[in-house]
Amino acid sequence: MPTVPSKENAFENIPSIKAKTLRINLNRDIYGTFAEIGAGQETARHFFRAGGASGTIAKAMSAYDKSFSDAIYGIEEDGRYVTQSRLKKMLDHEMRLVEERISRDSNPDYLFFSYANTVATIDFSKRYKGHGWVGLRFQLDPDQKEYDEIVLHIRFKQNEARLQQETLGILGVNLIYGAFFKFHKPRKLLKYLYDHIDHDTLEIDMINFTGPNFADVDNRLMSLQLIKNDMTDAVMFGPDGNNLLPAAVLYKKNILALRGSFRPVTKVNMDMFQKSYDIFIREQTVDMENAIVVFEITLSNLKASGEIDEQDFMDRAELLCSLGHTVLISKFQEYYKLVEYFNNYTKAKIGLTMGVNNLVDVFDEKYYRHLSGGILEAFGKLFFKDLKVYLYPMKDPETGQVLTSNNVKVHPRMKELYKFFKYNGKVMDIIDYDPDVLHIFSRDVLKKIINKDEGWEKELPEGIAETIKEKNLFTRKVLEEKE
């Protein structure tokens, strides 16, 4: 097994790409294959150039022709080649060949690996900048039966295929080097993927770590690191906790999005979801079979005390996942940016479920002063497509009045603009709401949980209170501080 450094300096020297490849090439035990499709054999080239590649590379190949590729890896059901499914088939096939063709008896100390990528670089019209799937299957101990695996999705930002190819080659070296020498620090491994790569040339919008040496890695937390490290603007994970590629999940879908703190998720959140979903799927242009619900949390919402509290984030994720929901974490503080993001992947209907207080914020000019067209520019981006707001009422705590789209108070300058969107059917009231839950606010429930008050359990969906108690969610930090 490669040696784990006992101590690292606060300011580390980043090895050159040649130094990284040479260190791997000179390690007699690291041995495997490279299969690269779509951008040339850019990663393998670095290892060949460094010298000593015969001690590392069993095979390097590119099946560029589709017929050859299909004959080797099989035919994809959707006919596409730059997919996670294709990457997995490449890794399966190449690792199987390594096991079949390299004798363990003769090479008992070999650490097998298979590196693969399937990539589409920028097209001739330069309309689509390109993207790709990159993966590594490897072992850190020759007796390791189950392999470790790192799979990531990338988006190119450069405008030349040659530059994209060079970036991909460097990324591949960083991934292989990190897997063998930084596996014990997955957060750092993630950062090291950008060694010798500018952040504005490449976006990593999904990564998953699996295998025995990553058993303690929570991929939702890794997803959060992608946002924190400015590697991407939005990340998504499913009920199983594994990260999802937003582009694949949202592609051509009817999307219903609910924004909230979900700290914790309450009966109000669930009523908002269920009632708006019932309306959404009955919309004429919505295909129920092609609809997805996304629970979205903005990055600013995660910064409860100025910095992101990762444990607090994990507690929220734990509850939403336990209810079977797909979660999106984004940098989009303004709703129009979220809608713009969705519009990158779908032209189908989009629904936003929000409370009255959120709608009032949407019509607040202060959020749009940075735009040259001000609030009109933002609303042009927000409402010009097939979008509708499903408005959940709010009970005024002082007067007891139930606020809806008919009596909500927006700034006097915004009244006519608000009327325009309401009369054009862009804002629809949820009328069959549960009046018995209107008094529930996540922040109040959270205070009760922390203070160990009574009665908060009945304000949460079934099973959520039990999960909070069993795992000490939202209270671990308080307990630790007391100790």
Automatic annotation (TrEMBL):
Origin species: Flagellimonas oceani
Upper lineage: Bacteria, Pseudomonadati, Bacteroidota, Flavobacteriia, Flavobacteriales
InterPro entries: Rossmann-like_a/b/a_fold
UniProt-recorded name of the protein: TonB-dependent receptor
SUPFAM superfamilies assigned to the protein according to its UniProt record, in alphabetical order: Nucleotidylyl transferase
UniProt keywords, alphabetically: Receptor
Entry superkingdom: Bacteria
